[in-house]
Structures are given as C-alpha cells and as structure tokens.
Amino acid sequence: MSVRPTTTTDAGIAAPSDDHSQSVGPNGPLLLQDHYLIQKMAHFNRERVPERVVHAKGGGAFGTLEITEDVSQFTRAGLFQKGARTESLVRFSSVAGELGSADAGRDPRGFSMKFYTDEGNYDLVGNNTPVFFIRDPQKFSDFIHSQKRRADNHLRDNNMQWDFWTLTPESAHQVSLLMTDRGTPASWRHMNGYGSHTFLWYNAAGEKFWVKYHFKSDQGIKNFTAAEADAQDPDVHIRDLYTAIQRGDHPSWTVQVQVMPFEDAADYRFNPFDLTKVWPHADYEPITIGTWTLNRNPENYFAQIEQAAFEPANLVPGIGASPDKMLQGRLFSYPDAHRYRIGANYLHLPVNAPKNPVHSYNFDGAMAYRNPTDPVYSPNSVNGPAADPELWKGDSYDVAGEIVRSAYALHSEDDDFGQARTLWEKVLSDTDRDNMVGNILGHATAPEVSPEMKPRVVEYWRNVQKDLGDRVAQGLGVNGS
Ligand code: NDP
C-alpha cells in the first residue's frame, strides 16, 4: 500500500488539518492566526492570470522537429540544418472566444510553435490559414473588437463583424477561407499550420532569401460542416489532441518552405510582405525540409500551456524579420502581452525558458528566478558576456524613404479580391462551394444582421466572384446584380 504524503503549506510546513479551520471552541469564530486557512483562501483568489485578449482558448503539446533536407544554402539557423532534432512546444487555439468557449466554432486557429534550439528559443507564431484579415497593425484592436463583444449588451454580433469586413475589403481572402469548412476544423491534428508572414533567411555567407513556412498535416485535412461543428462537445479539440497522444497516436506534419530569392521581392507580381496574400505555389514551389511530430502531453496545463508565451520576436541567427507591417506590429505586441499577463520574468518559467545558457544583463523584477551574477553592466573589464555581431551578418537590408502613413505601394497584380477569387474558381470543389455559401448565409442571417447590412454583404461577395455573390444575394433575398 502506498504511503500518502503529508499535506503541507506552500512553505512546506506540515498542514494542521485538511478539513477544519481554527476556531474558538467548536462553535466559535475563526482566528486570524490560522495562516493555513488564509493562505488557501488568498491563493485561491489569485488562481487566474488574465486570459489572453485573443487566442484565449487553446491546448498544446510537446514534440520534435526533425530536418531531413539540406537548406544550409538558405539559412545558417542550427535548427534547420540537415539531421537537426529540436524539442518543441505548440499551442493551438481559437481566436475570438474566451477561455471557456467552444473549440469547434467558426474561427481561424492559432498554431504557435516554440523550438528550444541550441541558439535560443525560436518561436513561429502561425495560424491554420496562410493569410490574415488586415495588413496594417493599426487596425488590429479594432478588428478584434468587432469579432468579440458589444459594449452595451456584451453579446457577440454578426452585424458588427460584417460591418468591419465590408468596410475592410482586404479581409476578403481570409474571410473566404474562414467561410469554407476549413473555418471549422475537425481537430487540430487535421489542419495545416502556416507561418503566414514572410521572414528573412540568411546563410553563413550572409546571403539573403525570403521564406514562408507551411506545416502540412500528415493526418490529412478534416473539417466539420457547420452543423457538425455546432453539435460538438465544447472541449472537442483539447480532448482529441490529448487522447491521441496518450494512446501513442502521435500526429505529425510535413514541414515545407517557399523560398524567394531576395531580389525578386521588389517587383514580384504580388507584394510578398502583404499578409492578406499567399505566394502561389507555381511561383515558388514548396520545398519539403523535414517532419514535426507531437509526442508528449503537458503534465500541467496551467504551468505549461496557459503560461506558455510565444513571441514572433524570438528569431535566432539565420532568421530575421521582414517588412511585413503585421509582423512588425506583432514583434512588439506579443512580448508586451506576456509582461502584462504573466509578469516581467515570464521567460524564467520552465516552459518559456531556453534550454541553452542565458547571459543577459536584464535582471530583478517580480518573481525573478534566474538572476545573473556580476558583472551587471556592459561594457565591463571583467570578462562579462559580449555580443557576437558575426552571427547576425545577413540580418540587414536597405530601407529608405519619406516617413508617411500610407497603404503599401501596389505591385502589378495586387488587389483585395483576386486571390479569394482564385480560391473560389480554381481550388474549391462543388461541395466546398455549396458549403461556403451555406456558411456565409448561416452567418449573415443571424437575427442581429440588419436589412441595411445585407446588400453590403452581397456586394462584398460579388467583388470576390460574381456567381458567389449572386448565390449569397439569392439566399439573403437581396435583389439586383
Ligand atoms: P495551387 O492550386 O497550387 O494550391 C492551392 C492550395 O489551396 C492547395 O495546395 C491547398 O493548400 C489549398 N487548398 C486546397 N483545398 C482547399 C480548400 N478546400 N480550402 C482552402 N484551401 C484549399 O494554387 P495557388 O498556390 O496558386 O493558390 C491558389 C489559392 O489557393 C490561393 O489564392 C489561396 O486562396 C489558396 N491557398 C494557397 C496557398 C499557398 O500557399 N499558395 C495555401 C493555402 C491556400 P494547402 O496544401 O496548404 O492546404
């Protein structure tokens, strides 16, 4: 028979009772000196950290990235060298719902990865779609507000969503993908992940390339129809991933990159840094570089998933940022969110801490665990850590221009609707199209969607593709063409 450990206070002192508070006689009042009771009640009041404003509901697991091809001509990053195996963490999530919201609702899915490399942590904070709703971070908080809850009645409101989307035509490509059945994936195992942004890669000689990442599900793509999604258990995706890994059914993804020669970017037919656009595969063929497998469940959800902190600014030597304006905004906003939500020393927590040694001159602050020894300043004459700019040779490019507030300069084929039209005309099957129209109508016929909004919804979809718009018009009972 196993011996039960003795309950303790959080200071490791044997607890006086699991059942009874200290009182003056069995029926008398409780005592302030009952530190154990007070510690329990006070800690309970502090159990929650603020939930994420976006991507609040999610789940995750640990895994391994294995690189099988030689891409050293494109990047010096150790984790992408042939034969490298790197431990990693992923957190999948929905976007707009709160912590207790249903997993299967129509939403993009977050696909955030952390790679614990020998050169520090590399984070790739992606989604299950290759594009996004907006292309300038100036609009981000407004966009999210439109997807969450109204100020007056605290309800989500499809009218508000269509108001934002129809006034923001750059959203059309992402809204199209969202309204296909990929907007309701059957599980996190059955969806692709995309780095979405364009990143800079540079090799050991400092030669530069632009890249996009694709993680293709080896389980295949599987989606719910709208009716199936509505019928699911609210925790269907967390449960699916956890139980699959628990039974040894380890999901994997084939890792691919599209590589664009650095010089192509200037006059490529689409702005390659516009987050509302893909690079058509025929222009830059995806190259398989390895496999990524999830093989370990978290042992403690709060410690390892709720407190997991991903940040696109974690870029290791060999990988840099691009001028994608949305990426530039996220480089700031993610670490800022973690400092607010978890605290200044969120990188000291085991799940966020790198596996390689840290030699930083940042120290102290709430909950400091990994504090440096002297010297505590740089430059110093006592052999303290010193930067190695050689590692970053290549992480640079020319930028010049007047300071402005402006949309991106258009490339020859840039517009708001063309790639969404290609999706409808060239990629979707008849069933996909029928379901997409049904999904749009399901969303735009919610009782709160006003009669004035419906013609705007029709015009939005006619701009994507005339037949699609006509079908939406018919379904909404809106005349004219
Ligand atoms: P391709 O014909 O070479 O590729 C189309 C891609 O679309 C497929 O490879 C697949 O990407 C994705 N796809 C397939 N079925 C669906 C579906 N039912 N719903 C959503 N996506 C699907 O064409 P292009 O590369 O020229 O792209 C054409 C259009 O395809 C784009 O405008 C975009 O809307 C969409 N697309 C393109 C991607 C890209 O990176 N080029 C990625 C995803 C979508 P995957 O294997 O990644 O699932």
Can you characterise this structure?
With 481 residues, this protein is of the alpha+beta class. It has a domain at 58-157 and 185-351: Catalase core domain (Catalase HpII,  Chain A, domain 1), CATH 2.40.180. It has 12 helices and 10 strands. A hairpin with a 5-residue loop joins strand 6 and strand 7 (208-217). The radius of gyration is 25 Å and the shape is globular. Bound molecules: NADPH dihydro-nicotinamide-adenine-dinucleotide phosphate. NADPH dihydro-nicotinamide-adenine-dinucleotide phosphate binds next to strand 7 and helix 9.
Highlighted features:
binds NADPH dihydro-nicotinamide-adenine-dinucleotide phosphate, 10-stranded antiparallel β-sheet, Catalase HpII,  Chain A, domain 1, alpha+beta, single chain
